[in-house]
Design the sequence.
């Protein structure tokens, strides 16, 4: 038993918003109050917090845990200008062996005032393949060495739901949008489970310093395996709600998995599906064309009927849905699907699960009230407001 006292404790309980002491027993808060707890509870360890503030642990409701953990080893490309990013890549290239992959993350061409290109990277890293993911994770920037390894050239076709950006002559520029990025990323050696365990262990210690005690993770099964290994070793100290990629929905249903299965540290969350791309690379699915791009209305990965079929199958197994939707059309289609899914749940005596739309960045005015009516969580990330509001003004029209 531990008693923390002489603190400013924010309880988030409206009937008792502040306290000065709390009692912890077997990992749970059992009492919150004032100095009377010191006389009421005997024999426990006492810790004088000397007036410091205590807050409940924060939960990041949308995190790519594997990606974040591995990004700590990558070049930080989130710079104010192209030259600063190139300088960081050049520094890494000097230390890398010929043929070694140079990886980075975080660039944003909207901040830089235009798209970068492969030639920018070729000048500083001609002998190593370079692959840098955008801050949105919906675009990637590769140099010529990486494009050659992926056999991407003027004759290459765009993959489904992806675009190889090209110059006026039809040659690839080095920018790969949406699924086109996988043409290169699939060539990069994947870390083993042991390596990923070590990366996650380091990452969770950084997350603690930010006040995060829980996360909702949207990475794949290898991350799940590493999290289970961490838990088995008693080293997992983040409470993780783990999503299931929609590509594995059939396997999850066959196994009988359901949302909430697990324990206090690691449990099954929702099935993650994608309706569209992102606003930065202008692949979010829109009702009207992007300003200045009359032929571009983004990429609609799923329509309402397709999402409903996925949701119906998930609901039969007790699995909720978390659906990425950024553009106004993508959100509209997702809400149409959830409206049918709510009807299906009611007609078949199934529980109304806590389905979510992730991001909800651009929304048609007629759709706003539907979230409340259908009891669908608008899982928004506040950082998108500041990072994308100028893009919304510029491109939404």
Sequence:
């Amino acid at each position: 038993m531990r008693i923390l006292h002489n603190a400013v404790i924010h309880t988030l309980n409206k009937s008792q918003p502040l306290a000065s002491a709390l009692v912890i027993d077997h990992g749970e808060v059992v009492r919150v109050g004032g100095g009377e707890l010191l006389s009421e509870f005997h024999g426990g360890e006492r810790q004088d917090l000397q007036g410091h503030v205590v807050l409940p642990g924060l939960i990041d409701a949308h995190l790519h845990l594997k990606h974040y953990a591995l990004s700590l080893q990558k070049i930080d490309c989130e710079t104010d200008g192209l030259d600063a990013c190139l300088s960081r890549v050049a520094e890494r290239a000097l230390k890398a062996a010929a043929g070694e992959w140079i990886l980075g993350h975080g660039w944003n061409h909207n901040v830089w005032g235009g798209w970068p290109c492969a030639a920018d990277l070729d000048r500083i890293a001609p002998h190593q393949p370079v692959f840098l993911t955008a801050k949105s994770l919906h675009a990637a920037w590769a140099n010529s060495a990486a494009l050659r390894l992926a056999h991407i050239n003027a004759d290459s076709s765009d993959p489904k739901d992806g675009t190889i950006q090209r110059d006026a002559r039809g040659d690839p520029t080095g920018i790969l949008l949406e699924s086109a990025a996988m043409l290169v990323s699939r060539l990069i050696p994947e870390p083993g489970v042991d390596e990923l365990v070590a990366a996650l262990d380091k990452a969770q210690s950084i997350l603690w310093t930010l006040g995060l005690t829980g996360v909702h993770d949207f990475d794949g099964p290898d991350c799940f395996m590493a999290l289970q290994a961490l838990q088995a070793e008693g080293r997992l100290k983040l409470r993780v709600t783990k999503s299931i990629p929609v590509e594995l929905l059939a396997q999850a249903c066959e196994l009988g998995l359901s949302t909430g299965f697990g324990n206090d540290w690691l449990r099954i969350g929702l099935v993650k599906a994608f309706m569209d791309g992102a606003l930065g690379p202008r692949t979010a699915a829109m009702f009207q064309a992007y300003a200045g791009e009359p032929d571009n209305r983004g990429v609609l990965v799923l329509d309402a009927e397709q999402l409903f079929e996925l949701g119906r199958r998930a609901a039969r197994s007790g699995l909720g849905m978390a659906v990425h939707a950024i553009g106004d059309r993508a959100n509209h289609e997702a809400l149409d699907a959830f409206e049918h899914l709510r009807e299906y749940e009611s007609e078949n005596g199934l529980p109304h699960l806590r389905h979510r739309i992730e991001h909800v960045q651009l929304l048609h005015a007629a759709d706003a009230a539907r979230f409340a009516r259908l009891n669908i969580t608008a899982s928004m990330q506040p950082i998108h407001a500041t990072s994308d509001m100028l893009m919304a003004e510029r491109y939404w029209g």
